[in-house]
């Protein structure tokens, strides 16, 4: 089925991007790339995802997949799994099950809106608010500046502060909700993953649209899960470049450089599969237990190696590679926090405690 997906993506002109992801969803579903949204494993997902950058339009499609699987998909699975902090309303579960089935079968897209202008990656800076009314309805006011997969989404998960309880709930907003303002956003790289801004003022939604009580308990792991898939995509992108550059009569020096890139991507991919196995075996596993795991270092090293290759401009030849620098994982607050935590163990290396 991956062959059919490659053929589908090859059918779009090189400059086309707007219709690619949505039009390819049925083929993406047939290839099994949406199985992890329901009961499929992350290892199986990543073993296929690494191939996507070798397809036309692949990196942009991969971004859509990693967001759908690790972000919106994770929240739906939490509700259906009756996790602590997830809605236990039968109306909520029925709605979530319907959304999940549509996503798994390639019939729909769901976007998550967290980031806002000026929030700097901190939930405490969010200005979007939620208030429970006497009627039981919830009043929402929000402006989300960047929703991945949002341009074609049939619904949105919006994170907003419940001021009375000082927590950050996750609320569902259908695309056709009266008054919802949607503005498409286009990036210079990986444009097939269409994005948008969404705004809603004084929206009154039913109580069963409240899916998760407090996103702050999930946010770090959801972000790291998304970055895990980004790391797999990066490995695929590097291997595509190595494959392309290895054709023809090359010097021994060129092959040595390409070998380093292949080895580095292999080391990172192996670590990603190891973490994927942990996620599959233990539903309570948190990636922060093993984070950072080398993605940031290998990303920087591979870009440095690419820039050292004579007569080769990776920014011109492979512009979508720039995505991984744009969303560089070392810039996130989660990375900084976990690196500081990890650094406390460095000075203990090699020391033995006598029993």
UniProtKB/TrEMBL annotation:
UniProt cross-references to InterPro entries, sorted A to Z: Acyl-CoA_Oxase/DH_mid-dom (IPR006091), Acyl-CoA_Oxase/DH_mid-dom_sf (IPR046373), AcylCoA_DH/oxidase_NM_dom_sf (IPR009100)
SUPFAM superfamilies: Acyl-CoA dehydrogenase NM domain-like
A GO MF term: oxidoreductase activity, acting on the CH-CH group of donors
Residue stretches making up the Acyl-CoA oxidase/dehydrogenase middle domain: 112-199
Pfam families: Acyl-CoA_dh_M (PF02770)
Name of the protein this chain belongs to: Acyl-CoA dehydrogenase
């Amino acid at each position: 089925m991956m062959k059919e997906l490659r053929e589908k993506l090859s059918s779009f002109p090189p400059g086309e991007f707007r219709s690619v992801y949505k039009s390819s969803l049925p083929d993406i579903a047939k290839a099994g790339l949406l199985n992890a949204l329901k009961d499929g494993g992350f290892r199986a997902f990543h073993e296929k995802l690494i191939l996507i950058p070798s397809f036309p339009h692949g990196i942009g499609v991969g971004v859509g997949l990693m967001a759908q699987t690790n972000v919106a998909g994770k929240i739906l699975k939490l509700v259906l799994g009756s996790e602590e902090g997830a809605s236990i309303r039968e109306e909520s579960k029925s709605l979530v099950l319907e959304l999940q089935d549509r996503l798994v079968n390639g019939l729909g897209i769901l976007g998550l809106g967290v980031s806002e202008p000026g929030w700097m990656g901190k939930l405490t800076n969010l200005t979007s608010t939620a208030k429970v009314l006497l009627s039981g309805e919830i009043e929402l006011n929000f402006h989300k500046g960047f929703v991945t997969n949002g341009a074609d989404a049939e619904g949105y998960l919006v994170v907003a502060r419940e001021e009375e309880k000082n927590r950050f709930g996750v609320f569902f907003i259908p695309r056709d909700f009266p008054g919802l303002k949607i503005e498409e956003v286009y990036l210079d790289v990986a444009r097939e993953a269409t994005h948008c801004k969404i705004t809603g003022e004084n929206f009154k939604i039913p109580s069963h649209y409240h899916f998760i009580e407090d996103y702050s308990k999930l946010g770090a792991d959801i972000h790291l899960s998304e970055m895990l898939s980004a790391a797999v995509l990066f490995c695929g992108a590097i291997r595509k470049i190595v494959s392309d550059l290895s054709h023809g009569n090359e010097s021994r020096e060129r092959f040595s450089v390409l070998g380093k890139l292949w080895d580095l991507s292999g080391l990172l991919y192996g670590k990603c599969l190891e973490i994927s196995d942990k996620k599959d075996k233990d539903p309570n596993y948190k990636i922060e237990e093993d984070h950072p795991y080398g993605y940031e270092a290998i990303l920087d090293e591979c870009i440095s190696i690419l820039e050292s290759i004579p007569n080769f401009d990776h920014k011109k030849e492979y512009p979508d590679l720039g995505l991984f620098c744009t969303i560089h994982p070392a810039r996130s607050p989660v990375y900084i926090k976990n690196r500081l935590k990890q650094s406390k163990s460095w000075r203990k290396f090699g020391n033995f405690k006598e029993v």
